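Bug report (template v2)

What were you trying to do?
Predict the complex of my protein with magnesium ion.

What happened?
Run completed; filing so the output is reviewed.

Input:
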Amino acid sequence: MASKIFCTANQKGGVGKTTTTVNLAAGLAQIGQRVLVVDLDPQGNATMGSGIDKRKLEMTVYDVLLESASVAEARTRAEKAGYDVLGANRELAGAEVELVELERREARLKAALAQADDDYDFVLIDCPPSLSMLTLNGLCSAHGVIVPMQCEYFALEGLTDLVNTIKQIHANLNRDLEIIGLLRVMFDPRITLQQQVSDQLKSHFGNKVFDTVIPRNVRLAEAPSYGLPGVVFDPSSKGALAFVDFAKEMVQRIGTMR
Ligand code: ADP
Ligand code: MG
């Protein structure tokens, strides 16, 4: 079976992209899905947060983008997390400049992933907080975008830019691309403004808003320092349980996506 490819994207930093990527991956793995995480952020947080030391990687997504390695050659197994990782480290920052010179520069990742299509049910791409050539490679590879967002006033403004970018990519570069859903993260129901923004999101975007809500939960924030996704670090925590629910919701959604 072919894999379904999703990008976690939002041009804002610190909104929960990486936390979403690694915990969704671990949640999917827990329910029996074969998962590859692609770290497209030179910070390498998804790599480290999966328990892989970015400084010790022999090959990374950088080598794949520059076509000096295949996905099968460059991936690493995140044993405890239960999925594979195409890792990243600072070297990836250079790819931005190097890719500009090359042909099909926005479609490099897509071509590489096509060769690993039978190996995974899900490929989750963690994007950097910008609309760079790296993010463009992510968006050109994907069937859908998962947009994690905090229910704050300015969140809606930032969303307009992202929605427009995705529309343009859909029109010009990737006919498959759609926003599969907005994921409310770091949610605190005691804060009235968050409830209000959440309601607004629902009324504007309807079923594009995932049913699952990820609560603010300190265990999710602590997990990366142990090199584990929260889902594995403390499976009974509220945050972990929410991400396993989210994994189930994703499996259901893609069943109805076609
Ligand atoms: P991004 O990848 O968008 O920059 P991160 O996933 O790294 O964002 O999250 C930013 C910070 O917020 C991190 O310190 C992370 O541990 C923390 N965080 C993310 N989601 C939650 C949550 N649901 N509850 C508590 N802390 C969270
Ligand atoms: Mg990140």
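What did the reviewer find?
DSSP finds twelve helices and eight strands in the chain. Residues 155-172 form the longest helix (18 residues).
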